[in-house]
Amino acid sequence: AVLIVAAGTGEFEAGISKNGQTREHALLAFTLGVKQLIVGVNKMDSTEPPYSETRFEEIKKEVSSYIKKIGYNPAAVAFVPISGWHGDNMLEVSAKMPWFKGWTVERKEGKVEGKCLIEALDAILPPTRPTDKALRLPLQDVYKIGGIGTVPVGRVETGVLKPGMVVT
């Protein structure tokens, strides 16, 4: 998951406050089983001064402290300073943040490094699915579609589901 945090003065503080959305979304991601996290520190163009290294480090420190409390390992989280509006550090390295030397993620599969958001996204490991186990497909919804019939909707948690397969 990508947790986007606003770097603007007051915006970050509101998000990280006791009932703030940043806290809520980080906790929700962890509770829902999201194992890999990327933190995008957005609106770096709105910091004082613009593209402030001090502000980025302050936000990184505070968010690291919080995500550690809820169960994430901050060493395994990429923190990327970005400006979505201007495209800084999104797809390619921005000249406006020469102080940013890149992010590093340390995990049991090894160390990964990069400089922009797309590289952090590319470094996410696909989750392993237990395909050798029995089929388990918790239903989310059931639709009755005229001319077609009953259509169950869900996500395969374990096992394999193939076209034409009979399930009971």
Automatic annotation (TrEMBL):
Entries under SUPFAM superfamilies matching the protein: P-loop containing nucleoside triphosphate hydrolases (SSF52540)
Matching PROSITE patterns: G_TR_2
UniProt cross-references to Pfam families, sorted A to Z: GTP_EFTU
UniProt-listed InterPro entries: P-loop_NTPase, T_Tr_GTP-bd_dom, TRAFAC_GTPase_members
Gene3D superfamilies cross-referenced by the UniProt entry: P-loop containing nucleotide triphosphate hydrolases (3.40.50.300), Translation factors (2.40.30.10)
A GO MF label: GTPase activity
UniProt-listed PANTHER family: TRANSLATION FACTOR (PTHR23115)
Protein name in the entry: Elongation factor 1a
Organism of origin: Homotrigona canifrons
